[in-house]
Design brief:
2 copies of one chain form a homodimer. Chain A is mainly alpha-helical and 145 residues long. Helix content of chain A is 46%, strand content 8%. Chain A is built from 6 helices and 3 strands, in the order H-H-H-E-E-H-H-H-E. A two-stranded antiparallel sheet of chain A has the order 1-2. In chain A, a hairpin with a 5-residue loop joins strand 1 and strand 2. The two termini of chain A are 28 Å apart. Chains A and B meet through helix 1, helix 4, helix 5 and strand 3 of A and helix 1, helix 4, helix 5 and strand 3 of B. Strand 3 of chain A pairs antiparallel with strand 3 of chain B. The structure holds a DNA duplex (30 and 30 nucleotides).
DNA sequence: AAATACTTGACAAATTCAGTACGGTATTTT
DNA sequence: AAAATACCGTACTGAATTTGTCAAGTATTT
């Protein structure tokens, strides 16, 4: 359950590759494709979205490719996934675009909302730099009510 | 992103209704259907799985219905969703049944694994009793590395 | 001018989801 | 015993989503 689409997965991996060229060594789509084993055509769709979102910028011509727009420790996994898959929404009625007819009577509404918040918070704490270094934030649980 | 299927959602809501009859007041499918606005036929599929998993038991005949097998504070949301949707697996390669060909080279493997663990841990702390009472565990974040 | 790269939109096969339909079986009440 | 009530199980299907591919551009540098 709770699976992420391939677009999101590939997107993060692509960003990781682009981060390797930071700050001024453009990485071509072809290189990303080879290293991460994803087709060039599919990557184009993904990178296009990320570029429009301002997370990366492109340099044309020979020697060109993609570059990070910001520092690796300033780009979170949450930011990447948000562009490719939209915000975390455990249920469709939690999606801002849709709406919930039975919020008041729904006993689970708050539960899913809270879960979504937890996930989002976690993904916000992980940046491309953390990813490259392999160090993730550990969370300590504690009852509060 | 990260949406839960309706089976999981309806399953939790159905369990909530059954919990209302705890400890010895069987709740019929029809009642659950009316209260939660889910078709009887669809609920049958869902409750069947939960019964086989031992979370609920059924009483036949007039006056019959479904009962919780254990105390409400001993049934977690994680347990319910696990039966209906399988374990949390952010990526298909984290599903125990499948497998990952590129674990070693995959930079994101640990990230998704960690996220899955966090989600699972959260859902384990919430029980049907918490759900009925509306009190959820709050988590406090803290850097550890 | 050629080579290299990025850009865009349409399209389609495959998979998953959400739910229905139907034909049972078991138990209790009258 | 029969009727009523309730659960059990499989098969099927229409719709939506996912996961890509394909084709035909446009832009920039050497």
């Amino acid at each position: 359950m709770l699976r992420l689409s391939t677009k999101g997965q590939y997107g993060v991996r692509a960003m990781f590759e682009i981060a390797r060229g930071y700050p001024d060594n453009p990485v071509t789509i072809r290189k990303i494709s080879e290293r991460q084993d994803v087709s060039v055509a599919y990557l184009e769709q993904i990178l296009n979205k990320l570029r429009k979102a301002g997370l990366i910028k492109s340099v044309k011509g020979p020697g060109g490719g993609y570059l990070l727009s910001r520092k690796p420790d300033n780009i979170s996994i949450a930011a990447i996934l948000n562009e490719l898959e939209g915000p975390v929404a455990i249920t469709s009625c939690l999606n801002p675009d849709e709406g919930c007819v039975r919020i008041d009577s729904c006993v689970t509404h708050l539960l899913w909302k809270e879960l979504g918040k937890q996930v989002e918070a976690f993904l916000k704490t992980i940046t491309l730099r953390n990813l490259a270094a392999g160090d993730f934030v550990k969370i300590r649980r504690r009852k509060s009510s």
